[in-house]
Amino acid sequence: MGCTTCTTTSNGTPKGCKNNGTCGADGCNKLTVFDWLSDISLPNSATPFNVVEVRFKNGRKQFYRNSDNLSLCMGDVVATQAMSGHDIGIVTLTGELVKVQLKKKKITTPIEELPKIYRKATQKDIDIWQKVRNKEPDVQKQSREIAMRLGLKMKISDVEYQGDGSKVTFYYTAEERVDFRQLIKDLARAFSTRIEMKQVGFRQEAARLGGIGSCGRELCCSTWLTDFRSVNTAAARYQQLALNPQKLAGQCGKLKCCLNYELDTYLEALEIFPKTDKKLQTQKGTAVCQKIDIFRGYMWYAYLDDSANWHKIPVEKVNEIIELNNKGNKPASLEEYVEVEKISKDAIFSNVVGQDSLTRFDKPKKKRRTNRKQNNRNNPKNNQRNRNRNQNKKRNA
Questions:
Q1: 276 near 291, Cβ under 8 Å?
Q2: Is the CATH code 2.60.120.10 the one for domain 131-200?
Q3: CATH number corresponding to 51-121
Q4: How remote is the C-alpha of 317 from its chain's centroid?
Q5: For residue 358, what are the contacts with CB-CB under 8 A and spacing of at least 6?
Q6: What are the extents of the domains in the chain?
Q7: pLDDT tens digit sequence for 41-94
Q8: Quick one: residue 183, left, alpha or beta (phi over 0 = left, psi -120 to 50 = alpha)?
């Protein structure tokens, strides 16, 4: 991804700001909010909202109280309050839209109890922050080696330093509970800082790391998706998808979040469909459902003693048969309700390119020279010339 200040190379590919989402333009990070009220001034009697949104590494955002009424705008680097010391982040949203974000994320903490912003970051703060950020890849590698040496069944997926370098947060994933008390001691001895361990789910890990999905786009969880709703195989069954774990699973190893995107529409469309296990009673025999077409509104039924022949019936007529069965009546057969589609000749073949010839792209054949020779032989004038030439040759000889 690239923000507006990343520019491109000579061949058109983006250079990238190489700040991993911490550039001041705030255009290449996850869940960027556009402040469409930035150009609108407040009424004279109104006071600006003193809460701002600050972003940290990997799209982590928190809200802070601007108790000193600092003049802040999007992209400013600020020093914020932490459990001990201070942290460094980038302001991503100010003004009245922060109220909307607080309501959207269901944060009910009173404004007076929110942590506060100390100051705008000085050059010294930024230098320390960049220094500890550059140490994170090496710290992650060493921490993985320590965990492997202790035989812990866990994966340290990411490392985040606090802005002043006084604390390191290790994000890890594990299938089951892990006793990392000895690991914390070894990490504190190796890096001489306070250690905090945070377990994240596999979906959260994929969101932090990012990647490209099977659709060719960047992962939804790492670009715009905020809520991770549970996904089960019933969503695939409602959409008539093959229950293939290799196709339905994402990079996190769980079912893809996009299975929930169209689920509500499918459930709404299936309200007019009867249950597939409902059997149709006719005088000819009992029929069971074989297949349904949600988009076109058709159902295929076959008799129990003739399962090879399927009958295509609209869902409205299927409901009519079910109503008759509920009243104790049976129709003669399913053939009475089968809808035969008339396919016109134009529907069988349509000339989409404007030419009907199948050989329109073939190279034209070249005329053979033998045909020209044969034509010369059949010409009487040429025959007389050949005789005269042969007679002259004999005389000269």
A1: no
A2: no
A3: 3.40.1440
A4: 39
A5: none
A6: 51-121, 131-200, 206-269, 273-337
A7: 778 777 888 899 999 987 788 999 998 888 888 889 999 999 888 999 999 888
A8: alpha
